Amino acid sequence: QVQLVESGGGLVQAGGSLRLSCATSGRTFSSYTAGWFRQAPGKEREFVSTISWNGRSTYYAKSMKGRFTISRDNAKTTVYLQMNSLRPEDTAVYYCATEGVAYRDPGLSFRPTYWGQGTQVTVSS
């Protein structure tokens, strides 16, 4: 059974930074693209970023590019999201997710199969 567990969320002031982690288990992590989505109150879930199974390709939503950095450590079966220059509009529940097909790199068309439970990020002004 595939499991994804996020951590690292919290309350931060505007301009601050947070690093989210997503620990995975249940299959060979290094074979699957992983990424992050977020959902703000009253809004639909939106794509944040994704990283290919081998870590060679990364993709970002326009509003996050230059502020957020996705990375992965396949030895630790963990994917990270470093968030800098945070804004109040970044407030949301952040979800980790992984691809269902090995060695597929869907880029911005990432449609995950597996999801974590989410971690809350709150940015105060």
Features:
125 residues; mainly beta; 4-stranded antiparallel β-sheet; 0% helix; globular
Task: Provide the β-strand percentage band.
Answer: over 45%
Structural class: mainly beta
Low-confidence stretches: none
- Overall pLDDT confidence: 96
Describe this structure in words.
The structure is a single chain. The chain starts with a strand and ends with a strand. The model has no long low-confidence stretch (mean pLDDT 96). It is built from no helices and eleven strands. With 125 residues, the chain is mainly β. The strands form two sheets. Strands 2, 4, 5, 6, 9, 10 and 11 form a seven-stranded mixed beta sheet that branches. The protein has a four-stranded antiparallel beta sheet with strand order 1-3-8-7, with no helix packed on it.
